[in-house]
Amino acid sequence: MRSILKAGKVMSFDPAQGLGVIASCGGEEHVPFHAQAVRFVDFVAAGQLVIYAIERADGAVRAVEVRPA
Prior knowledge:
- Helix content is 0%, strand content 55%.
- By secondary structure, it is mainly β.
- A hairpin with a 4-residue loop joins strand 1 and strand 2 (19-24).
């Protein structure tokens, strides 16, 4: 199930592994994401502001539809 769009900042992104972490704007949660979730650009960088949706499946949370803010 996907949630509404949220805003956050990329804390880290490893292009070799295709994995990253987003901190929500309030800082209350850190959400992992995969490079395949990035939309409208080829990659994102640490410190970049993004908009994303959250998907919860099998007890795990991840960011999907990550796009530049």
